[in-house]
């Protein structure tokens, strides 16, 4: 669909551009540069077979046929680099993130006029350092020698165990750079091996218990093909992300249970996060944070609220002990659960601020169709776990006071003023004059503080469908045969 729109724009604009250098016949040098770029599509995680064969392009004699083929190839590859090969909504209908905005017609014209065909593709790819790091890792892994033999299956391995499976475990961790010594055959599972294994588990968001159970061994045995495909999937995800996320913004990586507060192109704060369960998964989307509410009331959502209405009917004492109040939807007033007439009445449950409030001490609001927000939680013990998919879809954040201090600094609030609001008893609702873009994203290959790539657990199982789509993306017939228009051709 995007390519069809591009072609229409070019047709409309053709008379104005008819005399430009970008409408001149393609030179041999430009054809060679186009071929070089297409041959390197794999370095972006794209399949060169999806585009014209560079050798075929070079073999075409100069003329209109070659010009049409070159233009068509340029736009097909440029579109995939600029917007992604796969439509994310075809994989997840809840996907509503901000998309990249690129004017391919202008890029094409500039590339032709400046003789910068190869460079134009590099400029269209995401400029974020993480994209460059994932791309470099993809190239490195494609050229790596074959890894050691996989670790055989069996019971979980731990300190004191020994044998061929322990030898294979030690060899794999040595291969990954987590051990400096490959050890000797038959050497027992010791504290050094346990420590290396725990570091591996922590980097993958697995339970860092120092034991090699089924999940850990599966990750250790992940061959280069799996990692290469994981890199391809995450390069594609970066092509879906808007180039400008905002000078001051919040970025949540669902799969990494991580919230980052960015300003001026650098991370200023990092917070652990809890995300939705697999059955109430946190969606990917972007919205602007407009309200921060300290010591909030919680208006229970439909499903969960109905359970609390039933609790008020059966055990009002318990509901009141947890800070809940029963509200008559017809009058908007709180009612006494002990004496109210339940017949034919509609109720909603609200929870007052306090230590048991499901929103915790603060919620960060950015109105969205998913009804998903960032907030504190009384269930802080979950932050001690490596896997933290425990919420009903919202993002729960660790150390929310510090995040509120960061966010409200943009409104001129001092840290003391923020802490005073938290320590007070009343609800404080701040409408932001400087709204903060919030981007909820999903990446299973990320960079660490040193810029090295690490792979995290695909908690929602989204990699496989994306890889399958990249390998067999449903491309319409017109997409495969369409050509950018020849401005000199008859209408």
Number of helical elements: 17
Query: How do the strands line up in the largest sheet?
Result: 1-2-3-12-10-9-4-13
Number of domains: 4
Main β sheet profile:
8 strands, mixed, barrel
Mean pLDDT, all residues: 86
Helix proportion range: 25-40%
Alpha carbon gap, first and last residue: 22 Å
Structural commentary:
The protein is an alpha+beta fold. It folds into four domains: 2-141 and 462-481, no CATH class; 164-222, Muramoyl-pentapeptide Carboxypeptidase, domain 1 (Orthogonal Bundle), CATH 1.10.101; 244-297 and 357-441, L,D-transpeptidase catalytic domain-like (Beta Barrel); 299-352, no CATH class. The chain has helices at residues 2-17, 28-39, 54-59, 64-83, 104-114, 117-124, 129-142, 164-175, 191-203, 214-220, 224-240, 302-314, 316-321, 400-409, 415-423, 463-471, 477-481, and strands spanning 248-253, 258-263, 266-276, 285-294, 298-299, 324-328, 333-335, 347-351, 362-365, 374-375, 389-391, 395-397, 428-441, 445-447, 453-455. An eight-stranded mixed β-barrel has the order 1-2-3-12-10-9-4-13. A four-stranded antiparallel β-sheet has the order 5-8-6-7. A two-stranded antiparallel sheet has the order 14-15. A hairpin with a 5-residue loop joins β14 (445-447) and β15. The longest helix has 20 residues, at 64-83. The chain is globular and about 90 Å long. The model is unreliable at 1-19 and 474-491 (pLDDT under 50).
């Amino acid at each position: 669909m995007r390519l069809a729109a591009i072609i229409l724009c070019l047709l409309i604009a053709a008379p104005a551009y008819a005399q430009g250098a970008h409408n001149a016949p393609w030179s041999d040098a430009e054809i060679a540069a186009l071929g070089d770029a297409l041959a390197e599509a794999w370095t972006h995680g794209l399949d060169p077979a999806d585009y014209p064969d560079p050798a075929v392009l070079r073999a075409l004699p100069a003329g209109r046929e070659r010009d049409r083929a070159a233009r068509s190839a340029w736009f097909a590859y440029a579109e995939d680099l600029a917007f992604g090969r796969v439509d994310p909504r075809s994989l997840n209908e809840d996907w509503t993130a901000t998309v990249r905005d690129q004017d391919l017609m202008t890029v094409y014209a500039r590339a032709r006029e400046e003789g910068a065909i190869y460079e134009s593709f590099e400029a269209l790819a995401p400029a974020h350092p993480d994209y460059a790091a994932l791309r470099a890792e993809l190239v490195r892994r494609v050229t790596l020698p074959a890894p050691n033999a996989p670790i055989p299956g069996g019971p979980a391995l731990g300190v004191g165990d020994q044998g061929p499976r322990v030898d294979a475990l030690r060899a794999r961790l040595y291969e990954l750079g987590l051990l400096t010594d490959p050890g000797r055959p038959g050497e027992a599972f010791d504290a050094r091996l346990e420590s290396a294994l725990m570091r591996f588990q922590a980097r993958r968001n697995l339970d860092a218990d120092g034991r090699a159970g089924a999940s850990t061994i599966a990750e250790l045995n992940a061959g280069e093909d799996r990692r290469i495909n994981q890199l391809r999937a995450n390069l594609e995800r970066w092509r879906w992300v808007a180039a400008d996320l905002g000078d001051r913004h919040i970025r949540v990586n669902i799969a990494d249970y991580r919230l980052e507060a960015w300003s001026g192109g650098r991370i200023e704060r990092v917070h652990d996060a809890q995300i939705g369960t697999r059955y109430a998964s946190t969606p990917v989307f972007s919205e602007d944070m407009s309200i921060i509410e300290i010591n909030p009331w919680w208006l229970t959502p439909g499903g969960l609220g109905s359970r609390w209405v039933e609790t008020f009917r059966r055990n009002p004492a318990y509901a009141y002990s947890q800070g809940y109040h029963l509200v008559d939807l017809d009058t908007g007033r709180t009612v006494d659960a002990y004496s109210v007439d339940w017949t034919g009445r509609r109720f909603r449950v609200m929870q007052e601020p306090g230590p048991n409030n499901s929103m915790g001490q603060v919620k960060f609001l950015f109105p969205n169709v998913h009804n998903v927000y960032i907030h504190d939680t009384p269930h802080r013990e979950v932050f001690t776990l490596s896997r933290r998919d425990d919420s009903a879809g919202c993002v729960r954040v660790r150390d929310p006071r510090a995040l509120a201090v960061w966010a409200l600094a943009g409104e001129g609030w001092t840290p003391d003023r923020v802490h005073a609001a938290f320590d007070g008893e009343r609800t404080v609702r701040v409408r932001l004059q400087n709204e903060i873009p919030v981007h909820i994203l999903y990446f299973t290959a990320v960079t660490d503080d040193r810029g090295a790539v690490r792979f995290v657990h695909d908690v929602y199982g989204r990699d496989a469908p994306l890889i399958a789509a990249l390998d067999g993306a449903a491309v319409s017939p017109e997409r495969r045969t369409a050509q950018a228009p020849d401005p000199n051709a008859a209408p």
